[in-house]
Amino acid sequence: MEEIRNYFEKSVVMSDRDWERFSSKLEQQKFSKKQYLINTGQKENYLSFIEKGSVRFYIPGEEDFTFSFSFAGEFVSAYDSFLTRNPCNYQIQALEDTVLWRISHQDLNIIYDETEIGDRIGRLASEKLYLSNFRRELSLLTQTAEERYLALFSEQPDLLKNIPLKYIASYIGITPQALSRIRRRIS
């Protein structure tokens, strides 16, 4: 749980009182590999911090479309559903055994109201989620598949150990066969 405080204190100093109030609302939840954090049609009720593990965001179908990953030390949420209180139209799945610290939508609003730092905490978490999504969109518009593949591993060097190549191929917008060709070419 201290990792969360350290994350926030990179940007803002948090009083012990505010931290105690915030941390009292956090609950730990463990997910086993391949377990779903949220399914299509469910409403997201949590903003979560990944203590350990990784997850993928995907649209299920004949060929699942993976559009994002989140890793230890990052926030994870079906944030559009969390904000709008509407059902989610994608799924979030643990790629390995994953430990989350979660705060509910209701409790986060209490923190916003009852602490000096609450709004800032919420803003920092939402900015991080927004920037991650924006970088992904920009990479799809401006980089080749090979550049996206290389960038992914410069940002997350342990990725190959934890994520099946078919999910990585989907994420960078190519087939698994095209990813194999890229991997052969750069090795």
Automatic annotation (TrEMBL):
Database matches in SUPFAM superfamilies: cAMP-binding domain-like
Domain of life: Bacteria
Family annotation (Pfam families): cNMP_binding (PF00027)
Domain (Cyclic nucleotide-binding) ranges: 29-112
Protein name listed in UniProt: Crp/Fnr family transcriptional regulator
Origin species: Chryseobacterium flavum
